[in-house]
TrEMBL record, chains A, B, C, D, E, F:
Pfam families: Creatininase
UniProt cross-references to InterPro entries, sorted A to Z: Creatininase-like_sf, Creatininase/forma_Hydrolase
Cofactor(s) needed for function: Zn(2+)
Top-rank taxon, per record: Bacteria
Family under the similarity heading: Belongs to the creatininase superfamily.
Protein name, per record: Creatinine amidohydrolase
PANTHER family in alphabetical order: 2-AMINO-5-FORMYLAMINO-6-RIBOSYLAMINOPYRIMIDIN-4(3H)-ONE 5'-MONOPHOSPHATE DEFORMYLASE (PTHR35005:SF1), 3-DEHYDRO-SCYLLO-INOSOSE HYDROLASE (PTHR35005)
Molecular-function annotations in GO: creatininase activity; hydrolase activity, acting on carbon-nitrogen (but not peptide) bonds, in linear amides; metal ion binding
Entry keywords, A to Z: Hydrolase, Metal-binding, Zinc
Length: 274, 274, 274, 274, 274, 274
């Protein structure tokens, strides 16, 4: 078996796997309001759904993936106006630094954070950058919704990038209907805001705009969850799973100890290095 | 049903329960080496075993208990010499402060932390003290192994206070054999240290003694797990569950909104207030 | 005149402008190695070139833009292996929080950070999010290279997204040849790395990958600056200036006190709100 | 003479003593309200009384004890509602870390903190744990009221564990009548609270319960000081002095350089190592 | 009596004095090497000598001075190469902020820090500035050696400003011979350094110059203590006591509640307000 | 040429200069209200005027001076009542530590901070002390107004030490009239406060006194700017330039690698080393 749960293994096994270049996988989500129809745990439930399906598909390759327990709490101060369990940015940065440092001390030289919550995105990327400055090995991070790969034409056609991921709307509700239908309320009223939330509809691409009181003003949702369906959710989920599988395989190949095996790099993804 | 999982509920339900004086319950454990026979997650697995059994017994009373997802990572720097995922003391303090603050902002007026790891003990107690200084309501904390109540004469007779909790020895191994036997290795070799670990066998009651390098010197265990049995584990577990039930009921009654119903206080427990 | 320099104005004028809903504009760059052909100040010099050209174009509208002195130092720890003046992430976060808070206390209700350095990107976005949680008004942030608008067909055709922004390569060298040709060395040798830098060529879109020692390994450049020309630089610069003008106008219109004037929102830009 | 005051010695003597394995002794108390009959300095005055008597009894053995000036300020935020000089938990943690680090840099390999205030208890224990993780030698900590040893049958009979230490009640008032009678007011009115303070009378053993506003509600005292007498105080003091003498001797013997001399360990005291 | 010791008073008296506009006086020193002839506690012993003599002289006026226990530890990292108990700058800043905040919460509206150690000078001045920004009342700070007033012509003639205060040399040794002769060693060898210590002999007035390793290089003393005498020490001490008396009287009069009584200000002292 | 601008140089040149023992020069000012007649940037504009004139005069010697971009923001919380961009003390300390550390990592062994704002004075001195404790080389700091040297008898005669530097009064206004007359308003009304500001007119030399609300009470100026003239400003500026030239030359000679060349030390300047 190539997928293992770190917390269920004794120390000797963990250190042996790390010494054999296993990849430690750290899922992180959030606990925060997702409207009246989705549970507070939506973000960690979805990232677990994506990750665990991806790890199943990776179970037949030569690499061992050591999955950590999900970090359920994330950075959600903008949802405390109703209901959330939120870490401050500095707290979450410290947690991530400690987790990465612990894994390195335990012997891991390859670590990837798989994120399920928008409010964590900058922080997980900063965390791996800071870690790799001073620690041997490779640290990586991604947010599941930015990853998608070819699955079927239907799946590609189902995408609505302008509503992805949004918050508690079409995208997330579809995913939850696919992954945890029993936790989704049937009744999903939505009152569109006018103007729509600035944080979600920026007046210009690339411009982050944050206005005081915007989340309460729009009621905590970005778009209408009414059109969400389980069938759509399965298509969307499939593409993210495929995307994560590709990302994890790519990471594995790019950082394996035998550098000759590396995949050709792609020009599609460029970090901000100005 | 009176036991609910916070992460599986939508925001409206959570706020309504908080407004009805439900008690938020925050389990915390650790991920750290427990010898070659127990998994890294032992501390959170055991505290979950104790807590979930206790909540089942509380399921028939009038109070609603809102259980949070378990905080799996704790303060375990002394185990990083082999394998652990450890938060620094300042990090864990910040996490606990943020969680308590979030729960208060979400409306909870009664919160209790149930701890499964010795290295967290001081920090969870400090956290509830700091929180209650400036926030309305009541915050409480306990470590499961200090709680025990009358169950059966057999259970009481099974206790070996000098090995409780210890680390990865008789007590914890017994509990794991009762709660998660599939995760316990059959082979449990133990080499007693001479002298025994100072942190575990203080030269005087009440004196904390920490010597550099002591955990590696003794191999990471405090006492021999060989005598541990599932039967003993069930007795020990039963007493902690009963103790936690009593503690949670006591907390509930002492802090319920109708103060006339309070139980007589006991002289058995006194905090340090010199 | 509608563009003013905060540091050159007396207090009364500053407070009056803030009261009239002027927008405070905070440029930030970096001081870090840019190969042997570009100066350490490249990032702040370029963001100043973009911003000051954009402000000239905005000089005829009804809104007053109050430009702050450029924050020259940014978050550049990955360049300390040769030469940089770098702030730690926590330091820069504190600086940004203090600047935003100061501007709010001075009366500004609209603030935008214009960033010229990739290493600052996450931090400036986090800063405006944190600020707007607790402070009246709107705070915005952007990185200049992500902004581009229609200028000419030639300009659009000149783009090479796979080398934008990169570090000290085609894109930045072109911009510096357009803005500060006297600071660019004629001799620009480049030795491609094999494999190319992981941080720049991720094995998967959306995956941040950081490997220890990668910047020194590749010599501090991402791509060959040899093909850079002043003519290309002028085209690229023109598109970023136009993009920033559009972004600033969009911000102005979306947050002006008379909400009826707001531009229709666009679906093109969505923040991460999963 | 084997008891020395660090602050009264020149540097050469201090370093020579440290090199000869002297034990540095760090007393810490608090400055906080103790009702209308005891002075604010009660906690440091009592711990000094216990410690200096203990050091007198240790003056004839082979070990040198190097006493530091008393740290008079402790962690007393719960007393700021009337009168206190209190350090925040993070401040006191930093102070303790700095003091321990300084002593190690000055050459000491054995350090013990002797605490006189309940609010410091967790913090001094955390401090020695953190210090010993990374620094050669041994660091220890105790709170004087938890230490008691056989003195006379009368002394043992005088104990009232349910009122020890309490705050400004029977126990502390008795000790002050023995150690500093001139600082104790004759008039000691007490109004029992109903219900008694939750922090002092927990509904369950081992459960820390903190309720907002509890200290002001009960007037800052835990129990009636009226029955306190100087004679009782002398008995109580004698037992704590004997307990501290035993603890310090035990520490000395357990950590002396010649390990063959170590005392048999005791099973009576076990730290929390779950 | 108008001089009172805060730690020896019960809460009611402390709050009453604060309400009557008493001035809280906070002495702070250091514990650090002072050569082979002076004890580590020299700085706090001297500041106590100055302060307590000054308070005796103030004992007949209408103002009550409430003296706190001396803060013995200061900021002395430059002396850890031999022997010191030093707080980091951030730790000492936090301690001072906590002490000032506690005194304000306890009711004091006038507080003065009297400092005996050069390494604390900037930090105590920063502390009172920060405190007074947000807290009603007045906070003041001084270092005893900068204060001197007319005493006798002999005393004035005895001054050697170029050796004041220095470290463990003529000035401090003279003061200790006057205040604590039993703690001063007869043998006081001194080896002048060439060049003399840069931190003590700056190449230009007003320029602080710090060179790595300078304190160990010069052996921890700034100038020859051989010429120090008790008679000189008494003269020097007398002038500082007189200076502190004048400073405290000046502070009292400038901040007393009846503003009409204020002394004319002097042009002699100007803070840096560029 | 011996004066170079760090931000305009490529990495190779910077490292080569550092290796040749060039001195890095870090100017710092502030952005804060200076009455209704001077711009917010007065402090950084003046320190730049002093520094750049001084560097011109140093342009003919053997030492290379590498000037950094000016740090425009300083520690100005006392001016936020009207208009300022202020860093908290801890933020500025972190910035200074990062800048010093970066310069050392980039190869500089000699660094000097030249300060133009009173509120930064303690912090820049603390920063160089902290840096030099653990880093090879020399770090120095000064505030320009404390430096003056012989220029002409007229210049010396023009000094009014009791108004130097003050805030936005005679001294600063004169300097701005000399350096940036176009930024000084003709109309300069002043209403003297009674009593004058305590922070500026201490009741005793050497005593820092800070009273809540004092800056707003006196309107943000310390003394009347009416008498300021450009001619006086030129004289004052000339003396500060000469003083800074002397200080930089002195620093250079005292810390050059050939120690035999050192200037005789002076007794005029003594740091506080009690």
């Amino acid at each position: 078996m190539t997928v293992r749960h770190l917390a269920l293994l004794p120390r000797g096994t963990v250190r042996a796997l790390a010494a054999e270049d296993a990849v430690a996988v750290v899922p992180i989500g959030a606990v925060e309001q997702h409207g009246d129809h989705l549970p507070l745990g939506t973000d960690f439930l979805v990232v677990e759904a994506v990750l665990d399906r991806a790890l199943e598909q990776l179970d037949d390759d030569d690499t061992t993936w050591v999955r950590l327990p999900t970090m359920t709490f994330g950075h959600s101060p903008h949802h405390l106006f109703t209901a959330a369990v939120s870490l401050r940015p500095s707290t979450l940065s410290d947690v991530l630094a400690d987790v990465l440092s612990s894994l390195s001390q335990t012997g891991f030289r390859r670590i990837v954070i798989v994120n399920g919550h928008g409010g964590n995105d900058e922080l997980v990327r900063l965390a791996v950058k800071a870690h790799a400055l001073h620690t041997e090995g490779t640290a990586a991070a991604c947010s599941y919704w930015t990853l998608s790969a070819e699955t079927t034409a239907d799946a590609a056609a189902a995408e609505r990038p302008e509503r992805t991921p949004g918050h508690a709307g079409w995208f997330e509700t579809s995913l939850m209907l696919a992954a945890h239908p029993e936790l989704v309320a049937d009744d999903r009223p939505f009152q569109p805001s006018d103007p729509p939330p600035l944080f979600d509809r920026s007046p210009a691409p690339g411009l982050t705009v944050e206005r005081y009181g915007e989340w309460p003003r729009v009621g905590g949702l970005t778009d209408d969850p009414a059109e969400a369906t389980a069938a759509t959710g399965r298509l969307l989920l499939g593409r993210r799973v495929a995307g994560l599988v590709a990302a994890l395989r790519g990471l594995d190949q790019a950082t394996t100890s035998a550098p000759g095996d590396r995949l050709p790099s792609t020009d599609r993804e460029r970090g901000p290095h100005a």
